[in-house]
Every structure is written in C-alpha cells, then in structure tokens.
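User: Epoxyqueuosine reductase. Structure?
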Amino acid sequence: MKNSATKWSSLIKAEAKRLGFLSCGISKAEFLEAEAPRLEKWLNQNMNGEMYYMENHFDKRLDPTKLVEGSKSVISLLLNYYPEKEQVDDTFNISKYAYGTDYHFVIKDKLKSLLTFIQTEIGDVNGRAFVDSAPVLDKAWAAKSGLGWIGKHSNLLTQQVGSFYFIAELIIDLDLSYDTPTTDHCGTCTACIDACPTQAITEPYVVDGTKCISYFTIELKNEIPSSVKGQFDDWMFGCDICQDVCPWNRFSKPHQEPLFNPHPDLLEMTKKDWTELTEDVFKRVFKKSAVKRTKFTGLQRNIRFLDE
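Assistant: Predicted structure:
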C-alpha cells in the first residue's frame, strides 16, 4: 500500500507539472489543529469586516473530511501569475492577479483535468476541486504540504519563487504519500509591515482585513470611509504592496499561461484614461477578468475616491 501511495503521489505531481502548475504538495486530510484558535481569534476581533462568509462553516473550514465525505488527502497546487509587464507609472493600479482571465475559470479547468487523470490512471477516486470558492484554508494546506511558509503579511511564500501565485486544492478519498512543512524564512525582516500604507498588518502574521486596501476596493460594498483618504497609494482594485516589497519576490519569474495575459489596452491606461472610463471600455478591457467582481460602479467609486 505504501509503495502504491508513493507511486501515485509521484504520478499526480508529474501530471500537475505537465498541466502548468508551479508545484504540488500533498497532505493528510485532517483537522487543522493549529489554525482553529487563530481563526477563532481573528473572527472574534471582527477582522473579517463585511466578509461574513468567513464566519460560515467554521468546522468545514478546519476539517476537510466534513467538506468532502471520505476524504483522505489534500492535494495543494500553486499556479504562477507574475506578469511579464506591468502597468505604466502614472496610473491607478490593479492587483497583478487580476490582469488576465479570472483565475477561477483557468484553475478549475486544470483541476478537473488533474482529477480526470487520477481517475483514469488510478481508478475509482472521488474528490472535489477548490479555488478559494469554498470554506478551505488554502494557505494553511499549502504550508502543511511543504509548498512554502506563511509570511508576516499572511501570504504563502516560497524561497525560489516568492508569492505571486494562486493556490488551489483537490480533496480526494485516496491515501497518498504526504509531504512535510518547510521552515519560516522571514527572519527579522519587516518590509511588508513597514510598507503597508493602512497599517493592515497589525502584528507579524496577522492582517486586519478591515484595514486592507484590497478589502476597501473589492469587498466593501458601501462608500469607502474618509478616514483612509490619501492612504491607498493609487490602488483601485486590490493591492500588491506587501508582496512587491518582499525580498523573496526578487525571484518571481513571468508566468507561462496565455490566459493570464492582460487585455492590450490595460497596461497603457493612464490616470486620465481611468477617470474617463466608460462602461463599454470597462466591459471590453475586463471581459473575463476578476475585476468584474467589483462591477463598473464599484471601480468608478474606487477611482473617484483616489481622484478627489
């Protein structure tokens, strides 16, 4: 059985690589003991703000066996989204992950292919694919399976690669060979904490969601409070500051996924172009982008807030 688990794990990792994933790690599907008090404390301090979905399915969030019946293994996968080119200097910024086609669609297709491969090669295996659309603690599972460590900015970090990647999972009912966590390499560095314009990283490894620029520009549905005026550093959708300043991201290499390439107009648009944005241009530039989450009116609100 042990030999089969090792063989199957190698097979799955090789196929993940072939499908374009950056890396693949596997851990045993079990209760996330260390995460439980951390998540509870974070929620009790209302650091989720209007992200009420974080309060739902507390048990399922911590225990994949409650989420996927009979599950034995969590396969964690990373997919690079670091772009070759970035937006022009004089502009309102969009988080790099939203440059191209919405990652949910891109990754879901790859995960379905991987699950089909497992079923074809190994046999009757059941499971579900997750791309941050269900109560799964992506970063905790990726760290548990040795794909990196959770940095002081609460993002997953990998030594040779940095942090500009998506995390996804396949939770399946098959025993596999399990990886072990890596060590923390943040050391005494506080670059991310020092650089955050809204002081959202309240202490190392803890981010107050209600202070994060990404929260204000994407999750918050009401008007942005005037108390944070002038603190957004020209970010109109999401924010990459804590990742941009991280020394480990010196090693980021451009992705090889054509679907993540931006619309040709996006990178050239200046502040003037954004303030004059029409709904037609919005629909054209963000046709398949994650920016559609905030809708045209939401992006307009963010631009107004930056431009006033």
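The first helix runs from residue 2 to 18. DSSP finds twelve helices and ten strands in the chain.
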